[in-house]
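--- STAGE predict ---
source: upstream dedup step, 1 unique chain passed
mode: sequence only
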Amino acid sequence: MDTDAATATGAAAPPPPLVRIARDRGITTLTLDSPHNRNALSARLVAELSAALAAAAASEDTRAVLLAHTGTTFCAGADLTEATGTATAPATATATDPATAGPLGLARLLRTLVELPKPVVARVTGHVRAGGLGLLGACDISVAGPGATFAFTEARLGLAPAVISMPLLPRLDARAAARYYLTGERFDAAEAARIGLVTLAADEVDAGLAPVLDGLRKGSPQGLAESKRLVTAELLRVFDRDTDALAARSARLFGSAEAREGMTAFLQRRAPAWRR
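--- STAGE serialize ---
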C-alpha cells in the first residue's frame, strides 16, 4: 500500500527501515540507519538486521556482506531507553521473537554473523560503544577510519560486556581486554587494530576496503564458505559453550538496581550514585 492509499484508508504508513540494503557486483551492503539513537541495538534494528543477513546468506549473487552505518556512530550498543522501560516497544517486537529477546537475541545475532556462509566486512567511520563492539568482533574483517573511536562503557553503567565477549575475547589481546573492559577508556582506530578489535586502521576507509572487497569478489562461494568455517570454528565452540550462561548473566545485570541507576544516570546526563 502506498502512502496516499494508507492515508485514504486511515492506516498508518510503515516506518522507514532501520537497515538499508544495497547490492553492487557481489557485495551486499547492509547500512545501519537509525541515527536518532546512534544505531543502538533496539529490538527492531536487531530483527531487521537478522532478516537482512538471512536474505544475504540465501542470495546466490552475494559473495560478501558489507556492514556500514549512517551518522557519526557505527553502533552505540544496547538501546538504553528500551532497557530501562522508557521507550514504547515497537509494534514488530514480541516477547517470543528470538531475534528481539534481549541478551539471547543479541547472542543469536552475533552467532548469525559468525556462522553466515558469506564473509562479513565492517566499514567503520564513527564511534563504536559497548554492544556495538560485539558486532565488530563477529565480523570477519573490519576497516576503521581516523574518525572512529571505541570504548567498552558497560562497567560505568553497572553492567559487563557479557554476551559480546564470545566473539571478542578469542580475538583481543588479553592485557588490552582487561584494561579496556575495566576502565571504559576511549581508544582510536590504530589502537583497535593493535589489540585485534579491527583488521585495519586506514587513513581513507574506502581505499583500505578496496583490495579486501576485490579479493572477496574473486572468491568462489564454496571456497569462501569453507575458508570462513576454518577461521570461525573456535568462536562457534565458545558460543556453544557459553551462550546460555552469559545471556543469563547479562539479563541479571540489566535487571539489577545498580545497572538501572547507571543507565538512568546516563540518559539523564548526570553522574551515577557511585561516582567519586
